[in-house]
Amino acid sequence: MNKLKSYYRQFHPIVWVLLSGTVLARGSAFATLPFLAIYLSRNLDLHPVLIGITIGISPLSGVIGGFLGGHLSDRFGRKPVMIGSLFSMSLVYFGFMIAETPGWFIVLNALNGLSGSFFEPTGQALIADLTEKSKRMRAFSLRYTAINIGASVGPLLGAYLAVVSAKSAFMVTGVMYFIYVLILALMMKKYSMGNPASDKASKVTIASSLKIIGKDKALRYLILGTIIINFGYSQMESNVPQYLESTIANGVFVYSVMLSINAVMVVLLQMPISHFAEKFKTMQVMMAGAVFLSVGMLAFGFVTGWYTGILAIVFITIGEILIFPSSSYLVDQLATDELRGTYFGAAQFRRIGHFLGPIAGGYLLNEAGGTVLFSFIALVVLGSILFFIQGNKIFIKTSPTVVKN
């Protein structure tokens, strides 16, 4: 009992609320958003390209919001930004429940991406504010675990709700976010959050990030490569579910199990695979990740049931584990201390791939079918390797004193 109390006391109560809320909110969101493409196809009979625009508008608005969120947090404080964005996300899901036209779904999902991009960085900053420096890594590891616990349970709940009542999934998610914002607001009122020191680093703006991309060729190639990776990976939440529903028996349930397998694999394998990958150069790890992702996408074009679906998601997950942390590490290597925020801000432009992928993929799915779509995506993802290699060459030439990764 004493050990349990000691473990609880290592973090501020508001940090525990944020961690617990992450499980509930992400779990309910994963019960809804991955199935949004199926809902739009079934209930509104939308063209796959329009579905792609609806899904892709969220990450696009998130790119803009990512730059605005930090500025608003500095100006108005963590509390109003977090409470406002969470409440907005709750309203979005209630809006999904009553929306009946494509235009409303596009507006609502844009608002969802904008609100999420405000809440996420501000929430992470608050965790850092309220946690001792020596324990911050542990807090962020717990947050990452909380996200994937939600991601492992949510899709199975979503598959069940999709059968019972598709709109009930939106309602459950809206209620969960509302409960989250209510508890967080009460806890913020009860406990002092201190007065975090103002960040004296240069402000991260769209203009400053574009300027850095213009100057740093290595960063430019890295961003282009990761845009392509995200272009491919975005098919997972847009065109993969539509394709599985139309081609295999119990496609929605198979898709939900695949998403849960993906989340569980990330939780279990992230650390061992990352530890093993440290033995190799970062660029080699990125290339291996692109190959795994490409093979996984190709496999989706030939999915006939459970076994081939699970095989595809295993390849996708290994690629994801190898590529995404490595790309962040390379951005960190390229950045100077005083411009680190601007470099990571510039790296957010990779989310453009999440906007373009669902639209282009939707067009190919409708015009040429799944096998052509996923074969094309596999080839495009492999093409990212060329950008990574070129970026690495420039990095080595311009930084002769660093370890050549």
Automatic annotation (TrEMBL):
It is found in: Cell membrane. GO terms for molecular function: transmembrane transporter activity. GO terms for cellular component: plasma membrane. Its main location: membrane. Residues 14-393 form the Major facilitator superfamily (MFS) profile domain. Keywords: Cell membrane, Membrane, Transmembrane, Transmembrane helix, Transport. The chain crosses the membrane at residues 12-40, 46-69, 81-99, 140-163, 169-188, 218-236, 248-273, 285-303, 371-389. InterPro entries: Bacilysin_exporter_BacE_put, MFS, MFS_dom, MFS_trans_sf. It is a multi-pass membrane protein. It comes from the Bacteria. PANTHER family: MULTIDRUG RESISTANCE PROTEIN MDTG, PEPTIDE PERMEASE. This is MFS transporter.
